[in-house]
Amino acid sequence: MDRSKTLSVAAVLACATLLAGCYAKPENIQAWTKPYETNVTADRYVVQPPDELELRCAQVPEVNLQRQRVRPDGKVSFEVLGEFEVAGKTPEEISIDVGKRVKDHYTLSEDHAVDVRIAVFASHVYYVLGQVARPGPRNYTGRDSTLMAISEAQPNSMAWQRVIQVVRPAGQEGTEFLVFRLDYKKMAGHGDTSKDVLLQEGDIVYVPPTVFAQIGMVIEEFISPVARAFYGAYLVQNPPASAQGYMPTGGYGR
Q1: Does the pTM exceed 0.70?
Q2: Could you give the C-alpha distances from 39 to 44, 53, 133, 162, 173, in angstroms and in order?
Q3: Distance from C-alpha of 139 to C-alpha of 201, rounded to nearest angstrom
Q4: Helix crossing, 3-20 with 211-237: angle to 10°?
Q5: CB-CB contact of 49 with 71 (8 Å)
Q6: Could you read off the pLDDT of 166-215 as tens digits, one per residue?
Q7: Does domain 3-40+124-211 have CATH number 3.10.560.10?
Q8: Four-way CATH pick for 46-120: 3.30.565.40, 3.40.470.10, 1.10.1040.10, 3.30.1950.10
C-alpha cells in the first residue's frame, strides 16, 4: 500500500473517531446523578463474590473484627457462628442475619449490637479505557465520579482530553446505551465540575486518542510488520558479531 493510500486510510479512521462523538447527546447526562444530589451509602450496596466482609461486635471479642471474603458459592463462614448465605443481600440484611445467630450464642445488651461492614469492595466495577496509563476495571464504591475515575487512570500524552466519552451500556432488553462527552481539560484546569457525575456499576469512561495520535497509530499498524520483516531478514544475513554460530532457524550452533 503506497503512502498516499495509507494516509487516506488514517484520515478516514480519524474521522471515524470524530463521528463516534455523534452518539453523545448533551441530554444523556441527565441519566447520571450529581455527587451533591444523592447520599449513596454502603447499605444500598448488594454483596457479591469476591467482596470482603468484616463483622463488628464489641461485646463478643471472639467474633469481633472477623473478616471473610465471599466465596464463589455466595457464602461466608465466621468462626463460632458458622456459615451464612450473603450474595445478593445488602450489608444491613446480612447484619440482621448474623445478629440473630450471635444472640443465639451470647447475651447482648443492645438491639443493634452487631454490624457487618464491607471491608473490600471487589465485585462491582466500572471501566476506564483508552489512552490512559492505568486502563481497566475499577472497584465500584458508590461514590466514584468522572473526575475521580479519570484522574486515577492518568490520561497519557496521546489522550484527547477534551472529548472524553462516558458510556452507560444498555441494561435490560429494550433499553439503549447512553453517552455524553466531557472536557477533562476544562474540568481540571478551570474547575468546571458541571459534568462531574457519579458513575454506576458497569459504566465505561473512554479516553480517545487525538486525531494526530490516531493517524500515527494507523500508520504504525501498517509499518511495524514490514519493519520487523526487514529487520529479521537483515539479522539472518548479518548475524551479530557476538552470536558466533547463529542459526537462522533459531538458537546457536557450535
Answers
A1: no
A2: 10, 22, 31, 29, 29
A3: 9
A4: 140
A5: yes
A6: 999 987 666 788 999 999 999 999 999 999 999 998 999 999 999 888 88
A7: yes
A8: 3.30.1950.10
